[in-house]
Amino acid sequence: VAVRAADTEAEQRQLMWAGTRRLVLLGVPSPVRGLNARLSNAAKLALSHNPHRDAADLLDDCVRAAADRLIAAAGGPAWDEAGFTALLAAVRAGLPEAAFEVVREVQQVLGLAHAVDLALRELRAPAVAASVADARDQLISLIYRGFVTDTGADRLADLVRYLTALERRLERLPRDPGRDRLNTATVGRVQDAYRELLATVPAGREPAPEIRRLRWMIEELRVSLFAQSLRTPYPVSEERVYRAIDAILG
Fold first, then answer.
1. In whole angstroms, what is the distance from residue 164 CA to residue 239 CA?
2. Do residues 91 and 24 touch, judged by C-beta distance below 8 A?
3. What is the model's pLDDT at position 41?
4. Which of 16, 36, 151, 250 is the most exposed place for a label (fewest CB within 10 A)?
5. Which of 105, 39, 99 shows the shortest CA–CA distance to 69?
6. Neighbours of 74 (CB within 10 A)
């Protein structure tokens, strides 16, 4: 495992976590073969609609996310030999079942993503072009190679909600493209402000956790605009996002 200096305490924590996960996974048997054996043909078909290189690449992504969940449950990265030995034992014992649980959640995510992709292909009218482009960009930002680990196992249920909201948006889009364009413009303004915030992060440095959380706040804003019946876990609006950005900038 490569050693790299961290510029901030937050980046040090991120590097320590990633390094711990890698060491732990090198020290336990891979559950990928066992996962393949437990999957039905229907599940394998659903999982085949993925942006990864192949099925094994997707399952590796799920295993990393499952390892993160187990490391968190064990109290986080270990800082001494005894702690690492205990962490390794905990992950070894729990990984096969934890990984299978993640795969089942990812199956639902990818099923929704595939349905959204098919719906987008059917929306060809010029009046909905801007909305379709925005929806396509959102889908790409949520579902990409490595999305399971990046998103985190504990946020996969939120990902299901975001994709369900997107699916409902596309169902309604042909009936009221004007309203959708207004909501798309709102999201666009917020995303521009978020990109400006990201531009303040020094090159080569990971965004701080509070900046990364804003990305999910914008997803919640989309839910509130395009699929209000799904509800959000906290109040969210364009103004609240701007206030959160201002709080980070100080």
1. 24
2. yes
3. 94
4. 250
5. 99
6. 18
Please report, as a single letter, which amino acid is at residue 177. P
Tokens encoding 92? 């070894």
Q: Which of 170, 193, 185 is nearest to 247 (CA)?
A: 193
Q: Using one digit for the tens of pLDDT, what is the confidence trace for 234-250?
A: 999 999 999 999 999 98
Burial track 10-40 (b if 16+ CB lie within 10 A, e otherwise): bbeebbeebebbeebbeebebbbeebeeebe
CB 65 within 8 A of CB 105: no
pLDDT of 129 strictly over 50: yes
Sign of the Cα pseudo-torsion (105, 111, 117, 120, in order): negative
Residue keyed to tokens 């060491």? 23
The DSSP line for 188-243 is HHHHHHHHHHHTTSPTT-PPPHHHHHHHHHHHHHHHHHH-GGG--SS---HHHHHH
Q: Which of 158, 121, 174, 148 has the alpha carbon at shortest distance from 67?
A: 148
| Helix ranges restricted to H, the chain | 9-26, 32-38, 41-47, 55-73, 81-122, 129-142, 147-151, 156-172, 177-198, 209-226, 238-249
